[in-house]
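Entry 14. Ran structure prediction on the chain below.
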Amino acid sequence: MLKNKAIEILRTFNDTELKQFTEFVNSPFHNKSSKSKKLLDLLKNFAPSYDDKKLSKEYIYSKLYPGKKYNDVVLRILFSDLLKLSEEYLSYKNFVKSEFNVQLHLLEELKDRKLFALFTNLCRSIEKTFVFKGNINPDLYYNLFRLSSIKMDFKVESEKQVESENEILEKANSLTYFFLSQSLGILQEIWEQGDVLNKKFSRNFLEKFLTSSDINDLFNYLNSENNTIVNSVKIYLQLYLCSQDLNSDEKFKELFKSLKENINLFDNAEKYNILIAAESCAISRTSINNKTGYNDLMEIYHLLLEQEVIKKQTNRIMQMNLFRNIFYTAVILKKYTFAQQFIKDYSKYLDKSQRENMEYFTSSVLCFEQKLFDDAMISISKIKQSMFVYKFDTRVLQIKIYYETGSFELIPSVIDSFTHFLKNNKIVAKDYKIRFNKFLKYTGYLVKNRLDNDGKNNESINVIFNKLKKEDQIVNYNWLLSKYNEYLDI
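Output, structure tokens:
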């Protein structure tokens, strides 16, 4: 198989893109080399994989230069030219993805050429065409900043600087909106890196800047206005405020109300980003209040599914963690019908490499809930442990199955193994360790009491149970409470 950078790019082209690229190469504006055209035409015969054994440097050279001795330098220059053309095509393709961006470049060109009438008409068209409900994302804020900057330059160059007050304010506001929308999202990513992957950021100027600012005051300032752009920006501020005060039911309710009212202001990609940020906030709240927290989290998932953001994505892929979280939240809330329908509707949106594992995982959990413990264990045994999250879920479920089936003597070794896994694995975040270690600790107490005393010594376990009832940040909390209650009723 011929290894070549230009061919690597060609392999990524679908039929439409290959046709477009052919037109691109055949255009004298982009390419004046007839050999590049012939090279592409020859290579297209081997699309889409370009891995035919026949495809070699010597073969290509013999077709392009019949009867001539092979010259590697000449062929390398030809492939270099084709690589450059393919990169230019990709740049062009990326450039025209945003029509707003294209129009702004045209607007700037009209300004520079002092075609003021055309400039004014295009300005009106841009403002009418691109700023509307359902089109908002951080790029829009930035493009509005660019638009205001170009309009201001236009007024300066046409000697109308005294009339540029609106442009100055629009320029300042749009840049601030862009900064807020991006910075709050980036800060969320930093927090998640810390919470999930145990990453530590010693100097975080962004967080220092935001925590030093009065975001609540900024929100109240914007709250006095009511227009499409401002209402969209308020969502980002509410996400930050909610994440900073996880105990506040009021802030979360206000956030959810704003999401319900304004989520359709955003394009599909930004809807997804915002709802995932809201999910992260709601997940953090579950460690504070199990019942209310999970109900709030389920509301976010309902909204995400109602908006069909996954189905409307270009790649139509649902992340495994999101799928698992929606399913598991439904199970925790005992919404089994919803959970089963969700699996049916959305498992096809998982990456193909993850579907089988997720099928076994969801089957094991649902079998457990139906007290089909043998079936649950069979499904667990089929799960490949390559995905990190399954290392947690399967161990916890295994412990619960052993407990439910009265196999108490098998539990201590699983607890010991899991405890060492949590201790020795450096990428397990501190919060995760706390939540799972508490589960192991309280399960261990209960199992030890059963094994040592055969249910006859309830005084010490009563003390432990009272401590458990005051705990937070513990996985499978409700299951643990129910097992302690059952035991103490013996």
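The chain has a mean pLDDT of 90. Will compare against last week's run tomorrow.
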